From TrEMBL:
Name of the protein: LPXTG-site transpeptidase (Sortase) family protein
CDD domains: Sortase_F (cd05829)
InterPro entries on file: Sortase, Sortase_dom-sf, Sortase_F, TAT_signal
Record Pfam families: Sortase
Family annotation (PROSITE patterns): PROKAR_LIPOPROTEIN, TAT
Keywords: Hydrolase
Coiled-coil annotated spans: none
Region (Disordered): 28-49
Length: 204
């Protein structure tokens, strides 16, 4: 994977470009923006876990596909696209630090590679195999964990990336996992795989 779907949680006037794996590519970029910071607190929907306070994610576990990875923070690059984790043999996931932290009200966004060049498979290589109800556990810096249950998994063309569905305001803690997918030409993938998950009172 060359890069990931990206949208900054900043004002629309300063909206960054989103390029590569997860929302556009070198031939088709999209721009989008939200107000600065996470949405205001509101009452979580019935059947979801209580919202947590802000605490940076440091690890991610997805038992159904064997993922247990550190999580690094990602910001914006100089070209106003969101940074992605480095292409290294010890590939890790990355949390976009301008999105809510996992467990806060709003969509927390975590990106990962499906392949890492000469190093082979990436940390999110099996993301498309997830099914409704599979658990995702985000380990937080304060020693707690935010638990999510997969609601849906979508594979979409990069040109049709569902920006509002991924980054739009929600009234409960949610999680988005994003990587590349679909047919591959050279180092480019045509599609994105997006996991939509909601907070769950269930433990891992």
């Amino acid at each position: 994977m060359t890069s990931l779907s990206r949208r900054a949680f900043v004002t629309a006037a300063a909206a960054p470009l989103l390029a590569g794996c997860g929302g556009g590519d070198r031939t088709g970029r999209v721009t989008a923006g939200l107000r600065e910071g996470p949405p205001p607190p509101s009452r979580p929907a019935a059947g979801t876990a209580r919202a947590l306070g802000r605490s940076v994610p440091v690890g991610l576990e997805i038992p159904a596909i064997g993922v247990d990875t550190p999580v690094m923070p990602l910001g914006l690059a100089r070209d106003r696209t969101v940074q992605v984790p480095p292409l290294t043999a010890d590939d890790v996931a990355g949390w976009y630090r301008h999105s809510p932290t996992p467990g806060q009200i709003g969509p927390s966004v975590i990106l990962g590679h499906v392949t890492v060049g000469v190093h082979g498979d990436g940390v999110f290589r099996h993301l498309a195999r997830l099914r409704r109800g599979d658990l995702i556990v985000a380990r937080l810096e304060n020693g707690t964990a935010a638990v999510f249950a997969v609601g849906s998994v979508r594979t979409v063309a990069k040109a049709d990336f569902p920006t509002d569905a991924v980054y739009g305001d929600v009234d409960r803690p949610e999680l988005r996992l994003i990587t590349c997918g679909g047919p591959r030409t050279g180092e480019e993938y045509r599609d994105n795989v997006i996991v939509f998950a909601t907070s769950s009172p269930a433990g891992p």
